[in-house]
Amino acid sequence: MCAQNHKRPSWLRAFAGERCPQCRKGKMYKYPIWNLGKLLEMNPNCSVCDLKFERETGFYYGAMYVSYAFTVATLVSEFLLLSSVLNIQDPDIWFLVIIASLALLLPIFFRYSRVLYIRMAGQIRYDPKTEQN
Ligand SMILES: [Zn+2]
């Protein structure tokens, strides 16, 4: 008997693992995040509870605003960290740090903006009964 089957998956673990918001087990994306060519290819339905991930046509356009918020928060945080905390006043260093961090973080922002958006706007509640399939 596996104890994992009876344990309620946490919201945070399901979010971090890009799992279905309803059963918290099925994967939302087809490929791992390092497969950049297929970064945003999603499974049409949850493999565990059959939830349709594309709630309606164009549903994930709203996720662009979430991604934008992640990006702006990162830029402001980095700028404050570099200029005020680390007292680096060279704009060339600001530029390099911000470009390098965005190159690393944008794929993460794009994916997690959808993972967050379906939880915010998808009107889906966690349902423990769906995870037993
Ligand atoms: Zn599911």
List the helices and strands and how they pair.
Layout: H1 11-16, H2 63-85, H3 91-121
Zinc ion is lined by residues 20, 22-23, 26, 46, 48-49, 51, 130.
- Protein structure class: mainly alpha
* Main sheet record: none
> Gyration radius, to the nearest Å?
18 Å
Shape: elongated
Give the bound compounds.
zinc ion
Instruction: Quickly count the domains.
Output: 1
Description:
Helix content is 45%, strand content 0%. The protein is mainly alpha-helical and 133 residues long. It has one domain. The model has no long low-confidence stretch (mean pLDDT 90). Bound molecules: zinc ion. Zinc ion (ZN) binds next to loops. The site of zinc ion has 9 residues, from loops.
Write a concise synopsis of the structure shown.
The protein has 133 residues and is mostly helical. It has 3 helices and no strands.
Main traits of this protein?
mainly alpha; 3 helices; elongated; binds zinc ion
